[in-house]
Design brief:
alpha+beta; 3-stranded antiparallel sheet; about 20% helix
Length: about 55
């Protein structure tokens, strides 16, 4: 995401996922997406971003 190293984040820890989503939302160049998937191991929290149209990144 930042620095274009990762394009998504998937973890079981909701605190890290929510902190990351709020951190990324501070930048106006990203649209932050979040999902929760319920599975056998528990809830998987997914966070990813897309670039806002018109931004040259």
């Amino acid at each position: 995401m930042y620095g274009r190293v990762f394009d998504r984040y998937e973890k079981l820890d909701y605190k890290v996922a929510y902190a990351l989503s709020f951190f990324l939302a501070q930048e106006r160049v990203w649209i932050v997406h979040k999902e929760e998937h319920f599975g056998i191991d528990g809830v998987i929290y997914k966070v990813w971003v897309t670039v806002v149209e018109g931004m040259n990144l």
